Amino acid sequence: MASPNGGDDFESSLLSFEKLDRASPDLWPEQLPGVAEFAASCKNPITNSPPKWMAELESEDIEMLKELGSLTTANLMEKVKGLQNLAYQLGLEEAREMTRGKFLNILERPKK
């Protein structure tokens, strides 16, 4: 076994005092292309104008976003399942109406 003093000598022999220039793109290439440009764009001062995607939202839409944002994960999943069930029911109802229209010849093309 190594002596306690010998361990300190070993650790000090592993130290490197070499100075590496991290500013060089050749030595340290960008790991994810485009990250530097994105980070630079985020440093712009914050303006009071809303983002482009929020410009067309009405107050009801913003309230809905706030409501959905305040839900827990389980509640959000429950809401999504409810929307999926509603979409399925609407699809069934539309299929019934299309079949009804077909039987009533509502959708028949006029003959030329």
Spell out the key features of this protein:
single chain; 112 residues; 0% strand; 4 helices
Strand and helix layout:
Layout: H1 4-14, H2 35-42, H3 59-70, H4 73-103
Brief summary:
The chain is 55% helix and 0% strand. With 112 residues, the protein is an all-alpha fold.
What can you see in these coordinates?
The structure is a single chain. The longest helix is centred in the C-terminal third of the chain and has 31 residues, at 73-103. By secondary structure, the protein is mainly α. The chain has helices at residues 4-14, 35-42, 59-70, 73-103.
Based on DSSP secondary structure assignment, what is the total number of beta strands?
A: 0
H/I helix tally: 4
Structural class: mainly alpha
**Average pLDDT metric:** 80
Helix content: 55-70%
List the uncertain runs: none
The best one-word shape is elongated
Q: Give the termini distance in whole angstroms.
A: 102 Å
Instruction: Give the topology string: H per helix, E per strand.
Output: HHHH
Rg calculated over all Cα atoms: 32 Å
Largest beta-sheet details:
none
In terms of quaternary structure, the protein is: single chain
Fraction of residues in β-strands: under 5%
